[in-house]
Amino acid sequence: MAMAILRRLGQTLFVLFGISVLVFLVFFATPGADPTARIAGRNASPQTIARVRVEYGFDRPLPVQYVRMMEKLFVTRDLTSYVNRGEKVVPEVFQAAPVTVSLVTGAAAIWVLAAVAMGTLAAALRGTWVDRGLMMLGLVGISIPVFWLGQVANLLTQSRYHDSWLFSWVPGLGYVPFTQDPLGWFRALVIPWITLAVLFVGIYSRVLRADLVAVRGEDFMRTARAKGLSPARVLLFHGLRTSMITFVSLFGLDFAQLVGGGALLTEVVFGLQGVGRLTYQALGNLDLPLIMATVMYSAVFVVIANAVVDMLYLLLDPRVRDGRA
Amino acid sequence: MDADATPLLAVRDLTIALPVGGRMVNIIDSVSFTLGAREILGIVGESGSGKSMTALALMGLIDAPGARITGSARFKGRELVGLPQRAFRTLRGREIAMIFQDPMTAFTPVYTVGWQIDEQIRAHGRVTRKDARARTIRLLGDMGVPDPARVADRYPHQLSGGLRQRAMIAMALSCNPSLLIADEPTTALDVTVQAQILDLLRRLRREYGSSVLLITHDMGVVAETCDRTMVLYSGTIAERGPTGAVFARPGHPYTAALLDSIPPLHGARPARLPSIPGSPPAPADRPAGCPFTPRCAYAHDACAVRPPLLPRGVQDIACVLPAEGRDLPARCVTV
Ligand SMILES: Nc1ncnc2c1ncn2[C@@H]1O[C@H](COP(=O)(O)OP(=O)(O)O)[C@@H](O)[C@H]1O
Ligand code: SF4
Ligand SMILES: [Mg+2]
């Protein structure tokens, strides 16, 4: 066990190193990305430019610059933005992370519950109009652009019907920290949650239904029926439980990429200052310190999420536990 | 066996039709047989002859879309054909249990075998978790599983094929069914384990009073185990009768051909067994006359009309030869 943790830690460090070097090199290889001119400002005198170059260490060799940046990012944590002078990027990321985590976790809870309910119901009533209806609904969910859905949701809840009894509880756009006001946190996020979840409810319910239908043909499902179990028990305890193994691996990937910044569109529509938005701004400004900080955050998160999925795997599949599958 | 009493299972003219290429095809065509209490009946035939279909029909487990099952199958006087699923559910596992060919895939991979046996026990009666487990361990022990308490806590993939099949049989017997259907229970096992499992099946009728419907493609298994034998060919009965008689004086050329291809149950297997040339026709391409015609060495004009199943001594034979006075040669048997 300890060995496995150590190995994973080693892998993580290696991945982080690789990604950071890559980001660093790509940045300095990008034409027009030279940070000196940006920091010095438009029409700066050659003297100012020279001073900035020395001050920020841009005159040093690249490996030295890389090590300095990593040191400021991970050790002293006082790496500052190239764009907003003096703005420290690490606290910025740490402020954005809870917003994104709140958004994605809530949406994930909704999409898992809804997709399991829809997929299982559709599989149980395979071939009926309930099945067809649910799967159509899923397809609609997949095809609605999240940006558009968010705009419509805002239109309805923020302006058109905001004063009706239906939506008067919806607060204005933006994030409310959970620690400050749990109810406010919930109110502020519930509509973003649903908006973000719709696409995934569509995908996951369809995948789960297909999986459950495929698993029906397995020998062990026939055994379960031959035992005289009720159809519901056969479906839930034998079919769904087995299908959960694929479901979890899919979930791990999506969850990690969303928390890592993939929920950008939802964050933008609902005015949430999350990691996705931060990354987007950093890229737009070619602000290397912020890019580096957000990318490192995402990478760490993806690695953690992968570890969690692997643990779930161990819990869900005894064959993996024995290292045989 | 006791012929006067109503048999445990009486199947008459069981016909299973499935839509194949737009028309209904009889996969099983008018199959009739009876099974007495504590009797072991073997159903033999090559792969594709409809053995599994027959078994699944008796369990109410055929759910191919458009399947039509006609005829009659009376189990303890109760009609199974057309029985609603809800009623079947109380029979399945409790009155009629089934074990399958591949014990690896027949258990759900994510639960321990003990859990799965407990589940069946608890599905058919108010039994506490603890009592169910005690029964599970006793059953596993009865099936010759060493250290049953530990085996109950193992996952299917952690057990050998033989142990898994023993666990499967333990699960099937957990509610004391009157009828056990075993569909190729030893096909996936090696010869030594196969002999042990067959031994176990023979013991069942003594110790559990169960009747067994043993499905196999292997005449050697039948010889070792069954009181009576029914030979299926392409969904129809070729021959049936007491095992000893069928082996000594096979009346149907197909039976004789199957007997020629018995691998020895003990000792070395020959490099090649004589096998029947060709393969059985698909149900949709079955010829109008005797379905064995294309492969039969004795085929002649009279075979163009489907021969009915007629008694000949203690056997019933669906072939024109006995009526023509041309019996097949008797065999020296070592059963
Ligand atoms: N769903 C199905 N649709 C059409 N034909 C089928 C279906 N299932 C089985 N069959 C046919 O029924 C026949 C009997 O199959 P089966 O009972 O499995 O044979 P056995 O168990 O003797 O090997 C085979 O010819 C097979 O092709
Ligand atoms: S009826 Fe004719 S073809 Fe069929 S088994 Fe008998 S001899 Fe052969
Ligand atoms: Mg079969």
TrEMBL record, chain A:
<keyword id="KW-0813">Transport</keyword>
<keyword id="KW-1003">Cell membrane</keyword>
<dbReference type="Pfam" id="PF19300">
    <property type="entry name" value="BPD_transp_1_N"/>
</dbReference>
<dbReference type="GO" id="GO:0005886">
    <property type="term" value="C:plasma membrane"/>
</dbReference>
<feature type="transmembrane region" description="Helical">
    <location>
        <begin position="12"/>
        <end position="30"/>
    </location>
</feature>
<feature type="transmembrane region" description="Helical">
    <location>
        <begin position="101"/>
        <end position="125"/>
    </location>
</feature>
<keyword id="KW-1133">Transmembrane helix</keyword>
<dbReference type="GO" id="GO:0055085">
    <property type="term" value="P:transmembrane transport"/>
</dbReference>
<dbReference type="InterPro" id="IPR035906">
    <property type="entry name" value="MetI-like_sf"/>
</dbReference>
<dbReference type="Pfam" id="PF00528">
    <property type="entry name" value="BPD_transp_1"/>
</dbReference>
<comment type="similarity">
    <text>Belongs to the binding-protein-dependent transport system permease family.</text>
</comment>
<dbReference type="InterPro" id="IPR000515">
    <property type="entry name" value="MetI-like"/>
</dbReference>
<dbReference type="InterPro" id="IPR045621">
    <property type="entry name" value="BPD_transp_1_N"/>
</dbReference>
<keyword id="KW-0812">Transmembrane</keyword>
<keyword id="KW-0472">Membrane</keyword>
<feature type="transmembrane region" description="Helical">
    <location>
        <begin position="245"/>
        <end position="270"/>
    </location>
</feature>
<feature type="transmembrane region" description="Helical">
    <location>
        <begin position="290"/>
        <end position="316"/>
    </location>
</feature>
<feature type="domain" description="ABC transmembrane type-1">
    <location>
        <begin position="97"/>
        <end position="313"/>
    </location>
</feature>
<feature type="transmembrane region" description="Helical">
    <location>
        <begin position="137"/>
        <end position="156"/>
    </location>
</feature>
<feature type="transmembrane region" description="Helical">
    <location>
        <begin position="185"/>
        <end position="204"/>
    </location>
</feature>
<protein>
    <submittedName>
        <fullName>ABC transporter permease</fullName>
    </submittedName>
</protein>
Automatic annotation (TrEMBL), chain B:
<keyword id="KW-0813">Transport</keyword>
<dbReference type="InterPro" id="IPR003593">
    <property type="entry name" value="AAA+_ATPase"/>
</dbReference>
<dbReference type="GO" id="GO:0055085">
    <property type="term" value="P:transmembrane transport"/>
</dbReference>
<dbReference type="InterPro" id="IPR013563">
    <property type="entry name" value="Oligopep_ABC_C"/>
</dbReference>
<dbReference type="GO" id="GO:0016887">
    <property type="term" value="F:ATP hydrolysis activity"/>
</dbReference>
<protein>
    <submittedName>
        <fullName>ABC transporter ATP-binding protein</fullName>
    </submittedName>
</protein>
<feature type="domain" description="ABC transporter">
    <location>
        <begin position="9"/>
        <end position="259"/>
    </location>
</feature>
<keyword id="KW-1003">Cell membrane</keyword>
<keyword id="KW-0472">Membrane</keyword>
<dbReference type="InterPro" id="IPR003439">
    <property type="entry name" value="ABC_transporter-like_ATP-bd"/>
</dbReference>
<dbReference type="GO" id="GO:0005886">
    <property type="term" value="C:plasma membrane"/>
</dbReference>
<keyword id="KW-0547">Nucleotide-binding</keyword>
<dbReference type="InterPro" id="IPR050388">
    <property type="entry name" value="ABC_Ni/Peptide_Import"/>
</dbReference>
<dbReference type="GO" id="GO:0005524">
    <property type="term" value="F:ATP binding"/>
</dbReference>
<keyword id="KW-0067">ATP-binding</keyword>
<dbReference type="Pfam" id="PF00005">
    <property type="entry name" value="ABC_tran"/>
</dbReference>
<dbReference type="GO" id="GO:0015833">
    <property type="term" value="P:peptide transport"/>
</dbReference>
<comment type="similarity">
    <text>Belongs to the ABC transporter superfamily.</text>
</comment>
<dbReference type="Pfam" id="PF08352">
    <property type="entry name" value="oligo_HPY"/>
</dbReference>
<dbReference type="InterPro" id="IPR027417">
    <property type="entry name" value="P-loop_NTPase"/>
</dbReference>
